[in-house]
Amino acid sequence: MRVSLELKKVKRTGFLPTFLCGGILAASFPVINMAARTEIYLTQQGSPLQILFNANWQIIAMLNVLLVITGTCILYNTEYASNAMQKIKSLPTRAGSVFLSKVILTIFMCILILTIEAVAVTFCSYYWFETGNGFLIGLCKNFGYELLLMLPCITISLLISEACKNIWISLGIGVICVFTATMLPSDNFNLSLFPFAMPFQIFTDTNIEQVIRYICTAVAEFVVICLSELVFIKIRREFE
Question: What pTM does this model have?
Fold first, then answer.
């Protein structure tokens, strides 16, 4: 199942507008926050990226995770609403190919919203702060790190949406997981490995060893969840 076909499926749904509008909303937060409280942030010590991420990323990350949950619910709702999942099972396609295509499509949309947010952070940095020569490299590192930490959240959200035929059940589970993630202590490494909590981590506040541990864990969770989806498909077919 190609990603282009998945993109055609969602053209008449709210999938693309959801990510686009949500990305713009998240990107507007640091701009509005800086405009409203300029003096507070200009007196703080640290690099522009560190100040901006510390002040805004928790809200931005929560919006990003909610976007992922909403988007994944929309992706599978289109399949179940028209009984497309039953038709797909009769086609000569590999198990998990539909899931993998949806994962890739969601990752592309996350890259889009992170790019929009990166533009907003860049604007704030150049407009209100003095940036050094390594600013763009630091910006890419920060947002690349955030994209990697979103991978487990993307896959687990898609797996939940695939398991629940009712969109409101999968959406409700996702929202509960988000609010659970916001209540977990950020300084506890083990609890912060919860897939919905990992996107709240900030690159600038983390030492390199911890960054490597988070990246390795995120990749491992991504692979495990993808493999779990294959097991889930086989188990569900046994009971259908």
Answer: 0.90
- Region of 61 (left: φ > 0; alpha: ψ -120 to 50; beta: rest) is alpha
The per-residue b/e assignment along 142-174, b for 16 or more CB within 10 angstroms, e otherwise, is: bbebbbbbbbbbbbbbbbbbbebeebeebbebb
Cβ atoms of 63 and 26 closer than 8 Å: yes
| Residue 40 CB contacts under 8 Å (≥ 6 apart), including other chains | none
Separation of alpha carbons 85 and 116, rounded Å = 33
The predicted structure's pLDDT at residue 180 = 92
For the chain, give the mean pLDDT. 88
Residue type, 15: F
CB 118 within 8 A of CB 64: no
Q: What is the pLDDT of residue 92?
A: 53
Q: What angle do CA 44, 47, 53 make, to 5 degrees?
A: 85
pLDDT value of residue 240: 59
Where the chain has pLDDT below 50, the residues are none
- Residue 213's Cβ-count burial label (10 Å; 0-12, 13-18, 19+) is middle
146 contact partners, CB below 8 Å, separation of at least 6? 61, 64, 114, 199, 203
